[in-house]
Design goal:
By secondary structure, this protein is mainly alpha-helical. The chain is 71% helix and 5% strand. It is built from 9 helices and 2 strands. It has a two-stranded antiparallel sheet with strand order 1-2. A hairpin with a 2-residue loop joins strand 1 and strand 2. Helix 3 crosses helix 5 and helix 4 runs antiparallel to helix 6. The longest helix has 37 residues.
Length: 196
């Protein structure tokens, strides 16, 4: 039976089973479906990683363009905006299910997405943040950068839930205002005194 997924064209369960190396899938369904679920999940994660890879490169290019445009000695807020804006000002809703599925497979995310597409971006922005805040240790920069990424992911994943959870007070309608709030919040976190 063919069915629709939110991220792709029609997908057939026999196609997925075939890619997982299960040839006689009708027999397998009756006898060994449960042990094969890991293989099926891996196929889904691989397909999701491919889609994220296609979407992430334009975001990365924009991030680096914005960072370069800041010139020498950029402000903390400028660096944070350069990192966050390409995601938060885009139509990110179609990507949210992909993020959830790929993040549920840490090895897939690490090998397919982070190492290939995000590691160099993280390094560039952490270096810029370190120059803007020389009083912070490298470890503190990495922690606070990680918290900033967490804020961004949380907003992405809660984009449809937040209006309901907030009773309609908070929505994603004004993206520029949302970006300003996140940059301001993250900058305050970066500037806070370390007690560790």
């Amino acid at each position: 039976t063919r069915f629709k997924c939110d991220w792709s064209s029609d997908v057939c369960s026999s196609d997925l089973l075939s890619r997982a190396g299960i040839d006689d899938w009708t027999a397998e369904l009756g006898h060994t479906w449960r042990p094969r679920m890991g293989a099926i999940q891996s196929i889904y994660s691989g397909l999701d990683a491919e889609r994220i890879e296609r979407r992430i490169e334009p975001v990365n290019r924009k991030r680096l363009e914005l960072l370069e445009a800041l010139g020498p000695g950029p402000t903390l807020e400028g660096i944070l905006a350069a990192f966050l804006e390409p995601v938060m000002m885009s139509d990110f809703r179609p990507v949210v299910p992909l993020i959830g599925r790929v993040m549920s497979n840490p090895e897939m995310f690490q090998d397919r997405v982070f190492r290939n597409h995000l590691m160099h971006i993280s390094q560039r922005f952490q270096e810029a943040l370190g120059r803007a805040l020389p009083e912070l240790t490298k470890a503190e920069i990495v922690w606070r950068y990680t918290f900033t990424v967490g804020i961004m992911h949380h907003i992405l994943c809660w984009s449809d839930i937040l209006p309901v959870a907030s009773g309609g007070i908070c929505t994603m309608d004004d993206r520029a205002a949302l970006l300003e709030r996140v940059v301001s919040f993250a900058a305050a976190g970066f500037r806070s005194a370390s007690k560790v």
